[in-house]
Amino acid sequence: MTVPFVDLKSLHREIEDELQQVFCRVLNSSAFVLGPEVKQFEKEFAEYTGTAHCVAVNTGTAALHLVLASLGVGPGDEVITVPHTFIATAEAISAVGARPVFVDIDETSFTMDPKLLEAVITTRTRAIIPVHLYGQTADMDPILEIANRHDIPVIEDACQAHGAEYKGRKAGSLGIAGCFSFYPGKNLGACGEGGAVTTNDAALARRIEMWRDHGSTKKYEHAFPGLNLRMEGLQGGILSVKLKYLDRWNSQRREAAAQYAEILADSTGITLPTEMADCHHVYHLYVIQADNREQLREQLTSAGIESGLHYPIPLHLQEAYRCLNYQRGDFPVSERVASRILSLPMYPGISTDAVERVASELLEGCHVG
Ligand SMILES: *Cc1c(COP(=O)(O)O)cnc(C)c1O
What pTM, to 2 d.p., does this model score? Predict the structure, then answer.
């Protein structure tokens, strides 16, 4: 029995009729860019996240970029984030000409360690971007408390956290803005690229709406030079269909996570992911840690089980960010975690047999190892 890392084909087969209706509708209306399907999705996603506004864009990277740009962050400014994330978080900071400043993560939650935050704030800090990694929110209260004391806005990178909650509030509603990706493999994924910003700040939402569409106030009237980062009509319609299933799909992810945890509870040498107090984890990824990660990974591969590494090289050690002059040893938790993590197959609808198969292969691996 082979086990894929994700299975989008089966997921889409379940709702094929509804998706095909969207394709036909958009083909007939020719509303290929923004338009009524996108507007409707924006309304629904704002409601889902418990925010007043949602602005749909073409990627999660664009969502992060446009929030920073709309807050006026630019050259000479610093933006704090974590080195243990997908590079897009830092790229958005680079895209506006600002400097990414890293702060290490907490080893249990894999998210920003609030205890280390205050020490890296300077007079140039213009924003803080905690990342809700793997489907779990960062520890937002202490982060917001420190940020508020310094009058610095907090932008959530919620690209892996659609439907995740912190103290009963949805990811995307906790900071000044939440940034989402609808890349196909995310918990809520388009059939192509997609992204969105959620916020309660009407002026910020309006500015992002203009930014994504050439700084337009209306057709061919431009208040400032923006960019073209609009969402496609087709993706808006598809996301509206899939949003209805998000909670069910997240529950299925949580069930699979619980099954992994139950079977692997007695394993030696494997650290399981932890759902932190006050958090509702939506398991975008199910990430274990082990000293013999490479050996476990090879064993899974030879048994026909796919796995992943999210992410193998922390950003401060990437060639792309050599210019920041960080050294190995600067973020010891991120570095240790990067060498020990292993992402197991996780997707809505993964069978109990598949989870059992992966887990028993790992149990064998840790006894041999
Ligand atoms: C996917 C992702 C992004 C970027 O989203 P795209 O839609 O691929 O541009 C940003 N941050 C994190 C943490 C992500 O997982």
Answer: 0.98
